[in-house]
Design brief:
The chain has 405 residues and is an alpha/beta fold. The protein has 3 domains: 118 residues, Alpha-Beta Plaits (2-Layer Sandwich), CATH 3.30.70; 120 residues, Dna Topoisomerase Vi A Subunit, Chain: A, domain 2 (3-Layer(aba) Sandwich); 93 residues, AICAR transformylase, duplication domain (Cytidine Deaminase, domain 2, 3-Layer(aba) Sandwich), CATH 3.40.140. Helices cover 40% and strands 24% of the residues. Strands 4-5-3-7-6 form a 5-stranded antiparallel β-sheet. A 5-stranded mixed β-sheet has the order 11-10-12-13-14, with helices on both faces. The chain is elongated and about 110 Å long. The relative contact order is 0.06.
């Protein structure tokens, strides 16, 4: 326990520290360490509620001793701040952001900026891996470590460190790209690392949707298998690659999964199920043909719909002109007036053999008799005031009442 200018801080046990917040401070005046610590506790008090109050967090050991180094020069003060945290990643980031709200230290205006949040455990892991590799090198004659899981993890870590850069674009790759007759092309560095962990070293990443020249050149000399994520992004990269590179086989992660997340069993299964690129071209050709057909049908349907809409607008105009006049208009295919007759004569006119009407608009009731005659005469549109006693309407005749226009 320590008294920091009236502020009591408790150092968290070193083995519980997960993150170390690094920040810099600039003050417009001369300040000292107790001033900075006091400002940190004072100006964040009550800001984030009881659960993230710095004093309470220090009392419970979840925030360690706040380290401050500050020096003054030319009337200004500069320094660095370190805050050890055993909170989770999100809570640590919130506390770090709270530090940047501090605007004054003592009587001076000041600014605090977060530089980075260091994962202390990651540093420890790196040391463990380095030491484990040294042990493997130095004690090769010793019996194997009992736990197969531990040895697997160390082997995976060693393989992960074998990732290299390849070509003028410095693409992430395994160490066996040059020496292998066949290569596996993946999307990104994380995919390369995962395959290396599982012993696959002839792998290289495209790193984005713009296919590098190095990949194109390699495809001319080696047998190439693509292995992309099971999502739309993977499909788009494959589509571009097929257009500009010489691909031999295509493998794919399970639907919705990324190559970087696959287990060894999933990787082996996906690569076993790879298909020759010719099969992909056949499937794509069928898909494009289907899409073209659907597009053509959609366009035809759109044209039909637009024509019908135009026809309805013209019919509405004719309806307005005959309404209340007890007349019927016989219209051509282009909906021009061929003949206008009294409604009482409509049936007689439709019975004649010489009528060439394509549509009828009349100021009367649409009966079954009129509908049947319209069907016989291939009338497309039959427009009247309202429907009478109608039992059935042929599909060839579109019946419209005045209220529907």
């Amino acid at each position: 326990m320590e008294d920091n200018g009236g502020v009591i801080s408790m150092k968290a046990p070193s083995d519980t520290t997960k993150y170390l917040v690094h920040a810099e401070i600039v003050a417009e005046g001369v300040v000292e360490r107790p001033d900075v610590v006091g400002a940190i506790f004072g100006q964040t008090e009550g800001l984030l509620g009881e659960d993230l109050d710095l004093r309470e967090l220090q009392k419970t050991g979840r925030i360690g001793r706040i380290e401050v180094k500050v020096e003054s020069k030319g009337g200004r003060s500069f320094g660095e701040i370190k805050v050890p945290s055993s909170l989770d990643k999100v809570e640590t980031a919130i506390l770090a952001a709270a530090l940047e709200t501090i605007e004054r230290v003592g009587p001076c205006s000041a600014r605090i900026k977060i530089l980075k949040i260091e994962d202390v455990r990651a540093s420890k892991r790196r040391k463990i891996i380095e030491r484990a590799k040294d042990i493997l090198r130095e004690l090769v004659e010793e019996p194997e470590i009992e736990s197969e899981r531990i040895t697997d993890l160390v082997r995976q870590a060693v393989r992960a460190e074998e990732v290299t850069v390849y070509g003028e674009e410095k693409l992430p790759a395994g160490p066996a790209v040059d020496e292998s007759d066949a290569i596996i092309v993946v999307e990104g560095r994380a995919d390369v690392l995962n395959l290396l962990r599982h012993g696959i070293k002839n792998v290289i990443a495209v790193e984005g949707t713009n296919i590098p020249k190095t990949i194109v050149e390699l495809s001319k000399k080696k047998t190439v298998t693509t292995f992309f994520d099971g999502d739309r992004g993977g499909d788009l990269i494959l589509k571009e690659l097929l257009q500009i590179a010489d691909i031999d086989y295509v493998a794919k992660a399970p639907e919705g999964k990324g190559v970087e997340d696959l287990t060894q069993k999933e990787i082996v299964k996906a690569l076993r199920n790879k298909v020759p690129v010719e099969q992909i071209h056949i499937l794509r050709a069928k898909e494009e043909k289907r899409e073209y057909k659907e597009s053509k049908e959609e366009k035809a349907e759109k044209v039909k719909s637009e024509r019908m809409e135009d026809a309805v607008n013209v019919l509405k105009k004719h309806k307005e002109e005959v309404e209340g006049k007890l007349v019927a208009r016989l219209l051509s295919k282009s909906l021009d007036v061929l003949k206008e007759v009294p409604v009482r004569d409509l049936v007689k006119v439709l019975k004649t053999n010489n009528t060439k009407a394509s549509s009828v608009v009349f100021d009367g009731v649409i009966t079954q008799r009129v509908i049947d005659l319209a069907a016989k005469k291939n009338i497309a549109y039959l427009v009247g005031v309202r429907l009478g006693s109608v039992v059935k309407v042929p599909t060839s005749v579109r019946v419209i009442t005045f209220d529907e226009l």
